[in-house]
Design a protein that fits this description.
The protein is of the alpha/beta class and about 350 residues long. The chain has three domains: about 40-70, no CATH class; about 115-170, Single alpha-helices involved in coiled-coils or other helix-helix interfaces, CATH 1.20.5.170; about 180-355, GSPII I/J protein-like (Pantoate--beta-alanine Ligase, Chain: A,domain 2), CATH 3.30.1300.30. The protein contains five helices and 16 strands. It has helices at about 10-25, 120-135, 160-170, 215-245, 255-290; strands spanning about 40, 50, 55, 60-65, 70, 95, 140, 145, 150-155, 155-160, 175, 185-190, 305-310, 315-325, 330-340, 345-350. The chain has a four-stranded antiparallel sheet, covered by helices on one side. The protein has a three-stranded parallel sheet with strand order 1-3-5, with no helix packed on it. It has a three-stranded parallel sheet with strand order 2-4-6, with no helix packed on it. α4 runs antiparallel to α5.
């Protein structure tokens, strides 16, 4: 018995009594239970139950503490929450209490691996990081209270990310929807406070490429250059005619008459050219007035035609056009044509309602 040999029943019983006494006095110094409650029950296969009334029912489960119940089975291939990972383990749960009699687990070190337990300090750090990522003054307190963010967009304040993103979508510029594909089209409509009024775009940089937008400064400069070119052409023509006349002043009468005849022809041609330039300029002004007279129906979903006319210093022009306003009213497109005498032109435009 206990590694020894005894030649009498009394000796063997004495050795057994000594072993039990030693177990009670020294072997249990590091495991102590002080209770008069019912015995622990390890019911499931390979289970451990420690403590009065502790019950380990699920296979390979562990119940620790008085009244603890371990009844939850392993995941056995089920998907765990949050991560979506399938866990094959068939080990039952470790329980330190029961429903309505839960216990806190204290002095838990922070987890470092995927299957480690996390402590409250780590969870609070996650909460603070989440609040910091939200921005907008969001905060996370020690008691788990989340202070909502506050985002200022377009002069309004929004307390959620969804509302703020919705405001950004409302205030931002958007492409028109392509009716054929339902996706993003090749035009934009800007909307201001009144969706039925056009929008003024400021701080527009000067265009550099053929398809770039031009600002008012570039248009004004181009018009001034056109006028300067016309005046310079007239001055050069008159100067050339005067020089030709002076060169032939001292010639014989007959040659002078021929030269005067030629000069008269040149002067007539010059007058004709000047008249053409003047007529083109006046027709251009009339075209501008005619185009400005066009007015389209801005109501959503309306397709309209328009016609106009203009007269400037005896020159007249006619304009016509076709306009369409998208059903949601935030984009309008139009095409126009103008005619003055033998001159004609076409144009197209779009306006966008931003808000």
């Amino acid at each position: 018995m206990q590694g020894g040999t005894y030649d009498s029943v009394g000796g063997a019983l004495g050795s057994l009594d000594a072993a039990v006494t030693s177990l009670n006095t020294s072997g249990s110094r590091y495991v102590a239970v002080n209770s008069t409650g019912p015995a622990a029950q390890a019911k499931g296969a390979d289970t451990v139950a420690i403590g009065p009334g502790a019950v380990a029912g699920a296979g390979r489960g562990v119940a620790l503490g008085a009244g603890a119940v371990a009844s939850r089975a392993g995941l056995n291939g089920a998907t765990e929450a949050f991560s979506g990972v399938a866990v094959a383990s068939n080990q039952g749960a470790v329980s330190v209490g029961d429903a309505g009699a839960e216990r806190q687990i204290t002095n838990v070190a922070g987890g470092t691996q995927d299957t480690d337990a996390v402590n409250l300090r780590q969870l609070r750090a996650v909460g603070r990081g989440f609040a910091g990522a939200l921005g907008g003054g969001a905060g996370y307190s020690a008691d788990g209270t989340l202070t909502a963010p506050s985002y200022a967009i377009g002069g309004q304040t929004y307390a959620s990310v969804g509302a703020a993103l919705g405001a950004v979508d409302t205030f931002g510029a958007r492409y028109d929807v392509d009716p054929a594909t339902g996706g993003r089209g090749q035009s934009m409509t800007l909307a201001g406070g009144d969706p039925n009024q056009p929008v003024l775009i400021r701080n527009v940089a000067g265009g550099l490429l053929p398809n770039d937008a031009a600002n008012l400064g570039q248009v004004t400069q181009a018009a001034a250059q056109a006028r300067a070119d016309a005046n310079a052409y007239t001055d050069r023509s008159v100067a050339a005619a005067s020089a030709a006349a002076n060169a032939y002043t001292d010639t014989a009468v007959a040659p002078l008459q021929r030269q005067m005849t030629a000069f008269g022809s040149q002067l007539a041609d010059l007058n004709r050219q000047v008249g053409e330039v003047r007529g083109e300029a006046r027709r251009a002004a009339a075209i501008g007035l005619a185009a400005a007279a066009l007015r389209f129906d801005d109501r959503p979903g309306k397709l309209s035609v328009a016609a106009g006319g203009g007269v400037w210093r005896g020159e007249g022009a006619a304009s016509f056009g076709l306009g369409y306003t998208l059903p949601d009213g935030w984009a309008r497109v139009n095409a126009t044509g103008v005619a003055a005498g033998r001159d004609f032109g076409v144009g197209a435009g779009a306006s966008f309602t931003l808000n």
